[in-house]
Amino acid sequence: MTDTSSLTKTFDVKGSIVALVTPMMSGGQIDWEALEALLEWHLASGTAAIGAVGTTGESATLTVPEHCEVIGFCARWSKGRIPILAGTGANSTREAIELSLAAVDAGADACLSVTPYYNKPTQAGMIAHFKAIADAVSIPQVLYNVPGRTSVDLNNESALALFEHPRIVAIKDATGDLARGADLIARAPEHIHVYSGDDGTAARLIMSGGAGNISVTANVIPKTMAQLCQAALEGNAAEVEAISERIRKLNQALFLESNPIPVKWALAHTGRIGDGIRLPLTPLSEQYHAELAAALDACKENS
Hints:
Blueprint: E1 15-19, H1 32-45, E2 49-52, H2 64-78, E3 84-87, H3 93-106, E4 110-114, H4 123-136, E5 141-145, H5 147-150, H6 156-162, E6 168-173, H7 178-187, E7 193-196, H8 202-207, E8 212-215, H9 222-233, H10 237-253, H11 261-269, H12 289-297
Parallel strand pairs: 1-2, 1-8, 2-3, 3-4, 4-5, 5-6, 6-7, 7-8
Helix pairs in contact: 2-3, 3-4, 4-6, 9-10, 10-12, 11-12
Family: Belongs to the DapA family.
Active site: 144 (proton donor/acceptor), 172 (schiff-base intermediate with substrate)
InterPro entries: Aldolase_TIM, DapA, DapA-like, Schiff_base-form_aldolases_AS
């Protein structure tokens, strides 16, 4: 077994972590120029870390070589300026380990590993899955619980058991259940970071002791999301309430259809990326264009 006491990198990040889209041309090819421009924009806007090839980055429709290439591209661009959190989850433990080892080779700072979807393992199976990955991979591991997508739910007791592993340093809680998140924060070891994965409730979770937000909304308003997370970390309730109300409709509009359909349309609408998206995902239905455009206009940032 790997020496689990050693970590070759750290991931002590607080604030807004963008769950970055993977920009594509109209034919579905990855648009590397647009990707670099997005990375530069986030670096200048106060984003605390880059989440590459997660759900929002269309990990499900990238090939394994493309997956690794995007992670490597982000890491080479970063040169240590901003941490790269690589999506490396799979519903096969062996595949998740292979993707995670590839992320290490590509230069990622940490791995984001989703609960195994479709085959629906037990709590014991999920614990064994994540421990096996952490045993095999030398960089920090961030667990990712999003039962609305995976149909499995890593409960708090299982998460707490996994936090005993020295390479498991954080969890992305995308349940949107604030009471449950607060319970996990209260019972987790001090060094464990609990991140929100739900933009609508993220600030409240941070004010309960969370470390930040792994955010879809940050793709289109990175400065505002960084400001919101910082206000929540500082306990500035008035600022949190003001920003949260201003972006409430945008948070909702970005889920009018399955993520990342709306957020990619929003970025194309504002000229940041092209309109490419890969099947089985399809472009945003025309019936939602006006609603999302209005929500974007209400939250405009200075470039």
